[in-house]
Specification:
By secondary structure, the protein is mainly alpha-helical. 76% of the residues lie in helices and 0% in strands. It contains three helices and no strands. The chain is elongated, with a radius of gyration of 14 Å.
């Protein structure tokens, strides 16, 4: 597994843990925004060629959007009540 795959897997697991904590929709989405930016910064500071960095950042953006959709599906209303 590559370093980038490890980064993505860690991102996913962290966000799943955040959703499991049941802190609410907005709190969890804000965490997703922060973690996404952190992952982008790690990619930017890596030694990969610029074209690879751009592809990785696009993949991270798709992952962020997917996690945002999962967060929305996890909560049923504005009050952040879990659907589970």
């Amino acid at each position: 597994m590559t370093e980038f795959d490890n980064l993505k897997n860690t991102y996913i697991v962290t966000m799943q843990c955040a959703m499991a904590m049941g802190r609410g929709n907005q709190w969890t989405k804000h965490g997703n925004d922060i973690l996404h930016k952190f992952c982008e910064m790690l990619v930017d500071r890596s030694d990969y060629p610029d074209a690879d960095k751009q592809a990785m950042k696009q993949e991270l953006e798709l992952l962020k959007e997917s996690i945002d959709a999962e967060i929305d599906a996890c909560y049923q209303d504005r009050n952040g009540i879990l659907k589970f």
